[in-house]
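step=predict obj=tetrahydrofolate synthase n=488
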Amino acid sequence: MKRTYENALKLLQTRRRTARPTDKLSVGIDGLPPVGAIPNVYGTSTLLGIPSIVGMREWLELLGHSDSDVNRLNVIHVAGTKGKGSTCAFVRSLLLAHGSRTGFPRKVGLYTSPDLRCIRERIQINEQLIPEDLFTKYFFEVWDCLSSQESQVTVGKYGMPRYLQLLALVAFHTFIKEATDAAIWETHHGGEYDSTNFIREPIVTGITTIGMDHVEQLGPTIENVAWHKAGIFKSGTPGFSVPQDPNISAVLQARAEEKKIELGFVGVNPSLPTDARALQTSAQKTNCSLALALVGAFLKRKARPENSCLTSSDILDGIGKFSWPGRFEVISEGRNEWFLDGAHNELSVKHAVECATPRSLPRILIFTHISDQRDGQALLTTLASCIKNNNIRLEYVIFTTFQERQDGSTRIDKNVKIPHISIPDLLAIYCDIWRKIDPEAVIVSEPAIEGALKFARKIGEEKGGMETLITGSLHLVGGALNILQPLN
């Protein structure tokens, strides 16, 4: 096989699971207890299959990387349900602002999940996606090493890494080879058994807002979810969390005591600028405040004493240059305004509505949610309730799919699971739900994102401008961004 970017993506896709595991392990593996005996707040677990942390250290050793190599990355580890990516992006921006003034950190790695438009979004250095040639080079170095006959004999009981494990390994390999001074890591799903959690000595850890998330792996209750998220806490490493509901805070505090760390709960920082566009929602103020605490702890531990604090100019510069596409993002086209947020759970959509500041222009919603794991109908109902509570009237509601272009083209690096219902039937259900909520709204169904955007633009042309909220899924927002702001 030729060592091309396209072939790297094809090989990566072969490592996706075809279905979620259904069986618990009957024996322990590599020091972990049997999965059915893994403790949580109730002493039981719903976690199924082999935890994704299993094999990560062994695979990295095959690649020639030790714990010391990983520790030299100076990791900032972030878990949570809502706001992980934004918090990590704020951390990156603040560190780079400090580095431009002091010389440290000079090079910052960022690993996030999922991607919106391009797999390389998950692995960034400074503010740049890893280039295609570099992704290809490091991917095949990892793939060739782990798929070799010698490696398969050495690590045969683990086989080849699964999709997210492989991406994390490529990211670790990239940041080590590129000698980053700091590496910001967003967990995939949980924390305790997440494939990113083999890091033994992170510099600081952070927990964003926790809600019901990935219940099949982490549930069945919010306390179970919190237990897993707090698994990133490490002895000797400071930990921070945004304010949480009392039952969640109690679990986080108990886990902090178990791991012998001091946990700080971070409210909105009063020194945040009041006019920053990046801080237009309460959620982003919370995420930025957590990022300030994480960066502050990082600098105290790693920077020279004379440069161990962020200055007010660092903060203003970092927030001013903050960018995180598809999350509370505003794109202006004359009098047309697009508000994009990839909210895909009920906690997220409450904040997404804040993004769409009401004006006097016609207001439009473009929505879809297609998943075999989350309830799109409940998500749409929650969104409608939030819109009503914020006194926003939507004149047009457009339901669409994850199909990007009207000509039927798709993206090579996306693989979307769909529910056990036809897509047209699902869109018809969404239309019926909204028709009952607001019989006066104009409700349409478009088979492709491109068609939905064209319909909204047509309204803008007829009415002298429009405001359109695009939300419900990261896949939807990614497809919309591909059309509104194509990648070079």
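step=describe
The first helix runs from residue 5 to 13.
step=end
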